[in-house]
């Protein structure tokens, strides 16, 4: 079984400040890792993904994440946030289970950017 | 442009009625999924389908039914057996290798 933990349900941050959204996972097999963003009343949009290779992954809108296997973490970072980054962010892990890639989502972190 | 279309965006249902949510994709993806989203609970998998004419229950399938007669379409029926159907429903698709989902824009269902 696999699981994803997003410890922070809400993160307020001032505009132009840096932000880190935390994600920890557990799995007994190799995983793929993802971050998605959701704006109000919309679907989720893929921000970035880690499949293999370099542990530092760059995504859209200036976000990046680092895969840390020893700490089973995949934290999302942005050096300077904008008002438009206000949204909910979901971490997800995909692992082979029963012959198909099963995806498990975290409960989400609401990022509130304060002017 | 390729993508996933969910309709309608908003849906109201009377108690005791069945209602069907539409999901169509033109990405040529093999796999399709239905998720339910409630505040503070993230996304919970209802049903998924990896190939036409085949689908499996997810974590919260009770009170829901699906069909997959065409590769492009994966409609979800919320039956009267679903005791708490008010939620935001998201459809997604992916390749078999599962390199990430493409999501639709969602349907918000309200029972009145």
Question: Which SSEs are present, and which pair or pack?
Answer:
The complex is a heterodimer of chains A (115) and B (112).
Chain A: E1 3-5, E2 10-14, E3 19-21, E4 24-26, E5 31-38, E6 44-50, E7 56-58, E8 64-68, E9 73-78, E10 87-97, E11 100-105, E12 109-114
Parallel strand pairs in A: 2-12
Antiparallel strand pairs in A: 1-4, 3-9, 5-6, 5-10, 7-8, 8-9, 10-11, 10-12
Chain B: E1 4-7, E2 10-13, E3 19-25, E4 31-37, E5 43-51, E6 54-57, E7 64-66, E8 76-78, E9 87-94, E10 102-103, E11 107-111
Parallel strand pairs in B: 2-11
Antiparallel strand pairs in B: 1-3, 3-8, 4-5, 4-9, 5-6, 7-8, 9-10, 9-11
What would you say this structure looks like, in words?
The complex is a heterodimer of chains A (115) and B (112). With 115 residues, chain A is mainly β. Chain A is 0% helix and 57% strand. Chain A contains no helices and twelve strands. Chain A is globular, with a radius of gyration of 14 Å. Chain A starts with a strand and ends with a strand. Chain B has 112 residues and is mainly β. In chain B, the strands form two sheets. In chain B, strands 2, 4, 5, 6, 9, 10 and 11 form a seven-stranded mixed β-sheet that branches. In chain B, strands 1-3-8-7 form a four-stranded antiparallel β-sheet, with no helix packed on it. In chain B, a hairpin with a 2-residue loop joins strand 5 and strand 6.
Descriptors:
heterodimer, A: 115 residues, mainly beta, six-stranded mixed beta sheet, four-stranded antiparallel beta sheet, 12 strands, globular, B: 112 residues, seven-stranded mixed beta sheet, 11 strands
Largest sheet data of chain A? 6 strands, mixed
Count of extended strands of chain B: 11
User: Whole-number average pLDDT of chain B?
Assistant: 92
Shape of chain A: globular
Mean pLDDT of chain A: 93
N-to-C SSE string of chain A, H for helix and E for strand: EEEEEEEEEEEE
How much beta of chain B, percentage-wise? over 45%
Number of helix segments of chain A? 0
Structural class of chain B: mainly beta
Largest beta sheet of chain B, briefly? 7 strands, mixed
What sort of overall outline of chain B do the alpha carbons produce when their principal axes are compared?
Answer: globular
- Count of beta strands of chain A: 12
How many helices of chain B? The count is 0
Low-confidence stretches of chain B: none
Q: Helix and strand succession of chain B?
A: EEEEEEEEEEE
Gyration radius over CA of chain B: 13 Å
Structural class of chain A: mainly beta
- How much strand content do the residues of chain A show? over 45%
């Amino acid at each position: 079984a696999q699981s994803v933990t997003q410890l922070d349900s809400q993160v307020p941050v001032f505009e132009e400040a840096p932000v880190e959204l935390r994600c920890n996972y557990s799995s007994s097999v190799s995983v793929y890792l993802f971050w998605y963003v959701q704006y109000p009343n919309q679907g989720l949009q893929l921000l970035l993904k880690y499949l293999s290779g370099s542990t530092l992954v760059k995504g859209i809108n200036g976000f990046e994440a680092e895969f840390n296997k020893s700490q089973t973490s995949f934290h999302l970072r942005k050096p300077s946030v904008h008002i438009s980054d206000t949204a909910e962010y979901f971490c997800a892990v995909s692992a082979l289970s029963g012959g198909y890639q099963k995806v498990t989502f975290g409960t989400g972190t609401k990022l509130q950017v304060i002017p | 442009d390729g993508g996933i279309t969910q309709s309608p965006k908003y849906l109201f249902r009377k108690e005791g009625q069945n209602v069907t949510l539409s999901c169509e994709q033109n990405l040529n993806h093999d796999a399709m999924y239905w998720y339910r989203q409630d505040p503070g609970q993230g996304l919970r998998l209802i049903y998924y389908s990896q190939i036409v004419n085949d689908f499996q229950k997810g974590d919260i399938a009770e009170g829901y039914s699906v069909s997959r007669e065409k590769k492009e379409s994966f409609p979800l029926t919320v039956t009267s057996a679903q005791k708490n159907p008010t939620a935001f429903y998201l459809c997604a698709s992916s390749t078999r290798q599962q390199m990430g989902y493409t999501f639709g824009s969602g349907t918000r269902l309200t029972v009145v």
